[in-house]
Specification:
With 310 residues, the protein is α/β, with parallel strands linked by helices. Helices cover 43% and strands 22% of the residues. Helix 10 links the parallel strand 8 and strand 9. The chain starts with a helix and ends with a helix.
């Protein structure tokens, strides 16, 4: 059977533990009171409370000062451990120093972000932190759980379902453009005025398996009852540049990934001939890690690199 006296014993207040430790160190009530910033009568009241709770005199007045009893000698090690633990709890978090940290950051992102954001982010992180590494993870049905548990640090993209429990910061806005082979047999010399909705509907297209942003495109095509002749469907952007460069197909995609692929592969960019709802690329993180110094540093890097990025 449990000992009711030990179970119901009142916990010692931190100020009383501090008093016991100071009396042990100084052997003086007067000196302990000075260090605690209290009057001597107040400290005497605290000492009386300590003696009552621990059922022991704890210190005996002698010509050499306040000497500890055997009970105090047996307690002082544990008291100092508790006080040190309380001090550590009260300390401010250690700032994150990328130059000395050994840390792997996990960022959930789309394959478009692998092309548009990851190279610059990786170069920046490696320049600042030789002990840091990045891991790009997929955006899937486990995203919320990964961010909440800390298995992932950030998510980058258009993720409107991340709501309760998550913070978000807009990095840049996106509209839509078209990409084509610069030697396309029918639209190579087309001016923006000649590239119109009728021409768009007459051409053959590459469709990207719908992600969140592509649902906006598909919804607009359906709402406007446009005829979009899809000759090839892809699950992402892998191989898109090579296919456009060697065919007469057209792709409609968000501006940043489109302009990035155009620069890399020498493709032609054209305006989207109808209005598609734009969207914002954001960074998302869970509320649990809002004040985590490492997470804050990574978010700051992304904000500095990508906010208002054209």
């Amino acid at each position: 059977m449990a000992d009711n006296n030990s179970t119901n014993a009142a916990l010692l207040e931190p100020k009383l533990l501090r008093l016991l430790e100071l009396l042990y160190s100084t052997r003086s009530v007067t000196r302990a009171a000075e260090l605690l910033g209290q009057s001597q009568p107040t400290v005497s009241i605290w000492l009386a409370k300590l003696r009552e709770q621990l059922a022991d005199p704890l210190f005996v007045r002698t010509a050499e000062g306040m000497l500890p009893t055997p009970r105090t000698e047996s307690l002082i090690g544990g008291v100092r451990e508790v006080l040190e633990g309380l001090r550590r709890l009260s300390e401010s978090p250690v700032p994150f120093d990328p130059a000395t940290a050994q840390r792997r950051f996990v960022i959930c992102m789309t394959d478009a972000s692998h092309i548009t954001l990851l190279p610059e982010l990786l170069a920046h992180v490696r320049a600042l932190g030789p002990g840091l590494s990045l891991s790009a993870s997929r955006i899937d049905g486990h995203l919320e759980e990964a961010l909440q548990s800390g298995a992932a640090d950030l998510a980058l993209g258009f993720l409107p379902w991340l709501d309760t429990g998550f913070y978000q910061q807009t990095l840049y806005a996106q509209d839509w453009i078209c990409l084509a082979n610069p030697r396309h047999p029918r639209i190579t010399d087309a001016t923006p005025e000649q590239w119109n909705l009728a021409v768009y509907q007459s051409e053959s297209h590459i469709g990207i398996t719908p992600g969140t942003s592509y649902q906006l495109l598909d919804h607009t095509v359906a709402a406007l009852r446009l005829k979009r002749q899809i000759r090839l469907e892809l699950p992402g952007f892998l191989g898109l540049s090579a296919i456009l460069s060697s065919s007469d197909l057209v792709a409609t995609l968000p501006r940043q990934i489109g302009e990035t692929l155009a620069r890399q592969a020498g493709l032609r960019t054209l305006p989207c001939p109808f209005e598609v709802q734009g969207f914002a690329v954001k960074q998302y993180w869970h509320a649990r890690f809002h004040h985590d110094n490492a997470n804050r540093w990574l978010r700051g890097v992304c904000a500095n690199l990508f906010i208002h990025k054209p």
